[in-house]
Structures are given as structure tokens and as C-alpha cells.
Design goal:
The chain is 31% helix and 29% strand. By secondary structure, it is of the alpha/beta class. It has a single domain, classed as Rossmann fold (3-Layer(aba) Sandwich), CATH 3.40.50.300. The strands form two sheets. It has a six-stranded mixed sheet with strand order 6-7-8-3-9-10, sandwiched between helices. Strands 2-1-4-5 form a four-stranded antiparallel sheet. β4 and β5 form a beta hairpin. α5 runs parallel beside α6. The structure holds adenosine-5'-diphosphate and magnesium ion.
Length: 219
Amino acid sequence: MLSGYDLALDYRTGGSVAHAVDNVNLAVDQGSFVGLIGPSGSGKSSLMYLLSGLKRPTRGSVTFEGRDYHGIPAGGLMRLRRQRFGFVFQQHFLINYLSALENVMVGAVRRNHEVAAYGQELLRRVGLGNKLEKRPYQLSIGERQRVAVARALVHHPAVVFADEPTASLDQATGREVINLLADYRARGEGSLVVVTHDPAMLTGADRVLQMRDGKLSAA
Ligand SMILES: Nc1ncnc2c1ncn2[C@@H]1O[C@H](COP(=O)(O)OP(=O)(O)O)[C@@H](O)[C@H]1O
Ligand SMILES: [Mg+2]
């Protein structure tokens, strides 16, 4: 469903080149949970940016549902991301003057009563049904990340990309966040790509891949 072929991403700064992603081949099957582990600087985020179309590769190609990103202009890639992908990062990136529910609705492609009801249902599912109107600063750091998860899921993405979603959380809170993401794919709604440096977060994954110096191998 989502595949990268011979992917490479170089960063050029001054006279030097960093090979952030180096000859990577990867397929994410529909409905699968793929984990990416590896030390800091090994290229995990860079690979996620390529797979989600946030960055264009130096070499190689990415296809999603049969379409090669090379044939899609920047605006089209932006729409694809907004409509078909969900993102969770280490930082929650919530808007401080909006309520939890309004923050979730930021992720919605369309806004109507049905979507608002689904946003509320997602917040109930992540255990925040009684905090719909709270602002981010009134929530704990784990609660904020759960709002970010609900925001990433509200438009029923085909693929959820989570880049170190638990890095700011303690182990138990991190586990809860991963379980919420894993539930989404267990409901058959979409695939899950989780980047982490903590293998304990990937116990439910179908496949765990290891990144090292831009190269990918089975873990
Ligand atoms: N914007 C950038 N400019 C130059 N080098 C970068 C940039 N982003 C990442 N890099 C380099 O690319 C490599 C991979 O980085 P990254 O994908 O962020 O790794 P990870 O997510 O595994 O920590 C590192 O050597 C990093 O220093
Ligand atoms: Mg990273």
C-alpha cells in the first residue's frame, strides 16, 4: 500500500553531506503496525518524512495506493497528507487557546455535527470524555498527547505516522498512548508506523525494523 524504493536523502550543509537515508526499501502493508527503532541521528525521522511526502528524496521513489509521489505536485502532496495521513510527534503541537475538542477538530478535513460527534467519541476513547472543554494548559502532559492522538485520528487516516510519540512521557503513560494508536489499527481503520528508541513500545508491532546510519535492517 505504501512503499519506498531505493530511497536516499542527503542533507548538504556547507561542504559536507549527511546521508540521512541510504538505499532503503520498505513496504508498509495495509492495516499493519511497523516499528522503526534506532539511535538518535540514525535517520528515522528522515525516513518518515520521505514516506509521508513531507520531504522529497534525493534518490528513489515512494508510492502510496499506486501513486508515485514524483507525479504529485507539492499542493497535491499536502492534500494527500491532510486527508489520508495522521501525525503524532514528540511534542503535541496543540493550540493553547482552543479546547481539547476544538484541537481535535483541527485535524478534521470537514467539519459538521457528525465529525464533531466523532471527535467527542475519540476523546472519550482516550479517556478524556469529561475534559472536552479543557485547554491544553489545564491538562497533564500525557492527557495533551492523548488529545494529539485523537486529533491525528479524527479524519480516519489510512496511515498514522508517530515520531517518538512517547519520548516526553513516562513508561506507563507512553504505553497508554501506544495502546491508543494500536487500537486504531486493531479496529482495521489504518496502518501504523511508529518511530521510537524504546523497543518496549513496539511489543504489538507486526514488524520491527532497525535504522542505523541511514540504513534499514530487520531488528
Ligand atoms: N535539516 C537538516 N540539515 C542537515 N542535517 C540534518 C538535518 N536533519 C537531519 N540531519 C542529519 O541527518 C541524520 C539523520 O537525522 P534524523 O532523521 O533526524 O535521525 P533520527 O530521527 O533517527 O534521530 C543525522 O545525522 C542528522 O544530523
Ligand atoms: Mg527523529
